[in-house]
Amino acid sequence: MKNKLDNNNITLAIQKNGRLTKYSIDLLEKAGLVVDTDGQKLYAKCRNFPLDIVFIRDEDIPNLVETGVVDMGIVGRNVIAEINALVDNKLQLNFGYCQLVIAVQKESSISAIRDLKNKNIATSYPRIVTQYFQKMNIPVKIIQLNGSVELSPALNIASAIADLTSTGSTLAISDLRVIETIFKSQAVLISQKVTNNDKRQNLIDNLIFRFKATQNAQKFKYIMMNAPQEKLKQIITIVPGLKSPTVTPLAAKGWVSVQTAIQEDVFWEKVEKLKQIGASGIIALPIEKLIT
Ligand code: PRT
Q: Chain centroid to CA 81: how far?
């Protein structure tokens, strides 16, 4: 694999086959990077940026980044914390959200963390869980399992589990109930702590800049509307835009067209207000990139 990569290119490791794979590729595409894969999905080349992508199991990514075998990686925060990898967390990526929770059987008498004193806890995350219970000053016995952790209370292997959850359906199906959330995670972009190569560092910074512009764009919509000119002041207060809205007169007397950026999370609330004061013909468009 290595000799197929171009040494002048920076390398990004993403999960080979799992929950983060599609989101990671989507992120590259949204940032305008055209990726040619060899079909075997071991590595891919970017056609319009000096970037090679390698597809790897997610638990191997932090070490490869830490040791400089690859320049960057996309991986869950949970994996970095469990491995205790010394890497730079460059960007939260807003996907791969999950939580590491302590759960017990629904009918268990255990209701709080302190009830787990001297009990067995099954988990695939022994480091994070050990640290948590040490911090809480509660002695427990950690049973490390690499799969099917949710079955361990029913099999009498453990009184509780510490496992990742996103929708909660696996816990529900296994008749387990959450008593505590001990770690929150999402996918992050990581790079080596120190790079002595300025050229590579420039490329890394450039790539991060593109990802940020893509993320910013997703937080906003571009909005256009017709409005009575006399309401313009009120409209600017509701949707001030990045600096201020673009305002152009309409052929219809006393009317203007207002164009501006609006934050996605307050979109409906603001549109309601705009309608109430007389704005009409409101059109909202996605923004592809936003450089602030
Ligand atoms: O296969 P590979 O070695 O690459 O790793 P993997 O098997 O750990 O991969 P994968 O794809 O399962 O997880 C990759 C990353 O996705 C994790 O490291 C987390 O950062 C993130 N993630 C987000 C999750 C979940 N959500 C998640 N729900 N990882 C695992 N789960 C599992 C959980 O362990 C449990 O078995 O999903 C089950 C519970 O899901 P819900 O939806 O029923 O709550």
A: 16
User: pLDDT tens for residues 17-46?
Assistant: 999 999 999 999 999 999 987 666 788 999
What tokens were used for 60? Answer: 């191997």
Q: Distance from the CA of 60 to the center of ligand 1, in angstroms? A: 15
The pTM assigned to this predicted structure is 0.89
Mind listing the domains of the chain with CATH numbers? 2-95+187-217 (3.40.190.10), 98-185 (3.40.190.10), 219-286 (3.30.70.120)
What amino acid occupies position 228? Answer: P
Q: What is the number of the ligand 1 atom nearest to the C-alpha of 58?
A: 4
Interval between CA 153 and ligand 1 midpoint (Å)? 20
**Ligand 1, residues 21, 58, 83, 150: which to mutate, most atoms within 8 A of Cβ?**
58
- CB of 282 within 8 A of CB of 224? yes
Tokens 């305008």 sit on residue: 32
Residue 82 CB neighbour total at 10 angstroms: 21
**Ligand 1 and 148: CB distance under 6 A:** no
Q: What is the pLDDT of residues 215-238, one digit of tens each?
A: 999 999 999 999 999 999 999 999
User: Is residue 194 very low, low, confident or very high in pLDDT (cuts 50, 70, 90)?
Assistant: confident
